[in-house]
């Protein structure tokens, strides 16, 4: 979303709040704001060209999602997602991605099919070269194209939301051997869809998510997240205590 869109006159305050909420949420998930960084209402309002009111409302909503913590008389701080959140997301995604792949067997367009094939081919190239940034970007493109190919607005919205939610964690999992294994699974999903085999496509897509989660556990990424979360809470708590003194 461009800043100019937010600066446009909006008569529906709830629509404006929604735009501000999604913009701040996206910035948190994309890493624009670091963990335990303070989110300042005035600065965000000036950046987006809105008053403090929709920013304040958006921050309250983000606290309900668990992405920030609001300390009374102190401010709002980024919390991020926990290891438990990641586990839940991947378990849910495993079911939804399987359903998406099943529906894609029937609804995917020729252009989308060609896009999946191209992404798999390019991912092989970058995996061999060790280009992790490009591999992470192609991974997102594969899943985004897959979500769009199921031709369900509701399912596409849910999956894109979850996919973005664990973006920073996924970047870590694609390093090393998992990047190549992940693309091999992408290829198997693509081939099952191309062959119009919904049972196989669903099974592989489901297993793909479980494999990604198992890889996180194996490499200690979830343990790392838990330690980072504990550190964040400690730092935020200290800031809250300082404000009272």
**CATH architecture classification of the largest domain:** Up-down Bundle
**Contiguous runs where pLDDT drops below 50 for at least 5 residues:** 6-13
| CATH homologous superfamily descriptor of the largest domain | GntR ligand-binding domain-like
Mean pLDDT: 84
Q: What is the terminal-to-terminal distance?
A: 40 Å
What count of helical segments does DSSP give?
12
Report strand %. under 5%
Biggest sheet features: 3 strands, antiparallel
SSE run? HHEHHEEHHHHHHHH
Biggest β-sheet: strands ordered side by side in the sheet: 1-3-2
Task: Give an overview in words.
With 245 residues, the chain is mostly helical. The protein has helices spanning 3-7, 13-29, 41-48, 52-65, 83-107, 110-129, 132-149, 153-165, 167-173, 177-194, 198-218, 221-244; strands at 38-39, 68-71, 75-78. Residues 6-13 have low confidence and may be disordered. The chain has a 3-stranded antiparallel β-sheet. α5 (83-107) runs parallel beside α10, α6 (110-129) runs antiparallel to α7 (132-149) and α7 packs parallel to α10 (177-194). It folds into 2 domains: 3-80, Arc Repressor Mutant, subunit A (Orthogonal Bundle); 83-223, GntR ligand-binding domain-like (Four Helix Bundle (Hemerythrin (Met), subunit A)). The protein contains 12 helices and 3 strands. Helix content is 78%, strand content 4%.
